[in-house]
Amino acid sequence: MPKMPYGAIASAKIPLVLWFMVLIGGVLWSGGNAQNSNAPSKAVSEQLVAAINDLARNLGQQLGTSSGGNSSKTELFSPVSIGSMMFLMLRIANRETRNELLNALQLKQYTVSGSGNIPKNFARLLKEFTHDIAGKGILEELPGWHTSSSCYPKMEGADYEDDDDDDKYLDEPIQPNVVQLANGIFLQNGLINNTKFVKLAKELYEAQIKEVNFKEQPRAARVSINHWVNESTRGRIDEILSDDLSTSTQMVIANALYFKATWETFFNEPQFTRPQTFFPDGEDQPSVMVPTMFASGCFPYYASPELNARIMAFPYRNRTTSMYIILPNDSNRAKVRQLQAKLSSTELDQLIARMRLQKALVQFPRMHATNTYDLKHALQKLGVKALFDRTKNNLKLAAPYNRTATVGRLRKLFVSEMVHKIDLDVNERGTEGGAVTITAMERSLPPVNFRVKGPFILAIRHDPTKMLLFYGAVFDPS
């Protein structure tokens, strides 16, 4: 698919489309790191993907604690957005900060010089991810269910064609998936003194770097950052900064992820979505009413006795990306917390590898979630502390105070704020203006009834790279 310009986003109200926007903003800091010339490799790429997905589990536990513990409705965030920001920070981090970031990412082996090329491998993964490239990619692996197009057996002499292809019911052509990952770096005028980083940030991380004047024009700086945010989400998120920043601010980093895709198997028309009971903390506790969508067809599915849970996937049109719903049996808040702790990157891969297409009836809540997190607090809990310490020289980016001196005294740069914001909308319909008719042709009673009426874990995964676009617990989708 052709590459979309950064900032290409559509209206928030489009149905049967998953709209996912993520913003990581308000990062005040700077830093750097050398790299070797190793070419991208499957082994290194697998380690980086595992780092992002294990970060999802660890951050999920920390964000759950900080967002209200037993009162939060949703705890969704974007691992690939946060991970891409952390990998970018490695480029300019001094040793102590770099080691803490690598430890938080569980990549201690990269503290040794020459142990692998993170930037080139991550850049390759980002290319496959943001260009929505189909196929096995650098990881050379896809879930087994990708090889099957239908769960209905071929019947010799049957007088029907496979009706799994719903394209005929669309008034307009199916649009390809749209994936955008954009990094915006905003620096105090005259601060940057690392042209190599500027070049690498653009080439490897697709980052826009812009100078602003926090010191003398803090309002104009805030407006500039919010304008970038607004453009990057086409108005879906108006702003990430509601107040002017301190005049001592030196650097702000914002990261925006946008994903839009249509379902491979459609849910019902919106007028047929109806309220159903949902139990945020188990069926022995009070319930809420949530608008619930319905679907019938072939879905990747596995019932895990080891985890006492079931997993179902909802693939998007070209099967590069899927929404995985992991539902504990007799689900409640405590069971979801326990499942989160067990769901490492390896465990998630093994769970998905066991999935097979099965006929199913599905009931799933229509939902719209927005979450804002203080990543500074969460990362500190994971051991990233030097980055936020104003007494230390953490990052290799700024010019010295005395530019005329042979050796100038370096500025001590640190992160004073780090905010992560998401907006996620799951609707019934496809592309804008396209009316969809769902036709369920039941040839036999589906063996699986997947009714999501209690807390669950949601994972939106780009299957060729295995990277998690969105992840987290949903306790109450109302």
TrEMBL record:
Cellular component terms (Gene Ontology): extracellular space
- SUPFAM superfamilies per record: Serpins
* Pfam families the record matches: Serpin
Q: One GO biological process from the UniProt record? A: negative regulation of proteolysis
Residue ranges annotated as transmembrane are 12-32
**From the UniProt record, which GO molecular function terms apply?**
serine-type endopeptidase inhibitor activity
SMART domains (alphabetical): SERPIN (SM00093)
**Transmembrane helix recorded as keyword:** yes
Chain ranges of the Serpin domain: 57-477
Q: Which UniProt keywords apply?
A: Membrane, Protease inhibitor, Serine protease inhibitor, Transmembrane, Transmembrane helix
Tell me the superkingdom of the source. Eukaryota
Q: Which family does it belong to?
A: Belongs to the serpin family.
UniProt-recorded name of the protein: Serpin domain-containing protein
